[in-house]
Description:
single chain; alpha+beta; Immunoglobulin-like; Glutaredoxin; globular
Amino acid sequence: MNKQTNKMKNIVMLMFTVAMSTSLSAQTALIKGKFQRILPNGVDVDRVFFSKPNEGGPVVVEEMLKSKSDQTFQSALKPADLNVIRYIGVFDEQYPVYIRPGEKLSIEAGDGKINYSGNVSKENQVFAAWFKLIAPLRNYGYTKKGYTLPTDRYITLLDSLEKPVQDFVKNIHTGNNSFDQQVKYLLPYSYKFDILKPLVSGLTLKSKNEYPPQIVKLINGEKFADANLWSLPLAYSYMANFSFVKHILYNNEQGIAGEMLVPEIADDQLRAKFILAHAQRGVTQSLVKFLEGNRKYMMDDAQKKELAVLLRRAYLQIAGGSWIDFAYPDINGKTHRLSENLGKVVLLDLWATWCAPCLAEIPALENLQKQFEGKDVVFISLSIDTDKAKWQNMVKQKQLSGIQLFSNSEPRFMQDYEVAEVPRYIVFDKNGKTVNFNAPRPSDPKLKTLIESKL
Length: 455
């Protein structure tokens, strides 16, 4: 009886396991394929980004590493990324996908073209047909030497595609009403982005008279009066490209294109969001001047607060701006604050144990510290490492002097000080004011002279 009972239990457990496996399989989905994108140094990218739209641009949901053996990528998608439009791509080359639970979608993309295979849903069939329709145009903006293709062919293409593109969008009827509504909004902007991209990429039209009617109509008609544009992942890039084509290429004006666009944006919310996004990217002649001049356009407390934070970071980078305080532990766990050093000149050394140029400067930095012994100068070396043990070992082995601190690559510090690369040397005066946000390296005698000038 016991043997029979155990056998029945095993059968039930097996059935339960199979049922659960089938259920889980139905809830998950898989995306895989190939994506070629050659970097300026001639090397193919080693990863593909799976993204969703957020605040005018794509925000990465997952980085999909490419296999070194066959350059393919593969990933199981999370439930939050199913039954919604997501994007797969690299940098400004992004392709929409719509995947249901249980589906396996394969894509092969690069040079502005994409092929969808596997479980190609009716939604992805729309995307596949769309990219097939506009493929000749995308040769100009997405291939390595697209800018060298004949301009007369580009002009002819815009003329020949105008009505087919309009008809395509009008005739999207998948039965998925939410999808249809979103795509009918997305694709016209996607098309406008693609007709501008060749010009941004280097295709040259010598005079205003050579500009095709579609471009002239876009330049004169786009007022940016729809705040919903910011829901698209190409919003900021489209607005920046539009401004570059209009002001720099078409009108032959001098300056920063994005700054020229601000007063032309009709919708107040869209304008405020563009200002903040533009400032975050730092594409300005003077970030302080740009932020101060556009402070009046902020619409709510959150935007005003965000602008104030950006302005504080901008002031940090100019001579006479105030430092932004921080507190980090030394090798013994004691916390040190930057503000504890008021009354002394401070050299802030941003470095990492994995940074070869940083390590090469250590002997010169140690020598410089000896030359300022007994004077009102403080040397703070702040590591952006995440491997604390490795940092501790190097500090001990090399017997590094000065104040050695560990930041653990803390996001707030990285943002405040805009640490994109190391080494970086910053000099503050005795009042905590910036002297040089990108000072010479210790091996350069100019750094010693700069410090001496503030004693």
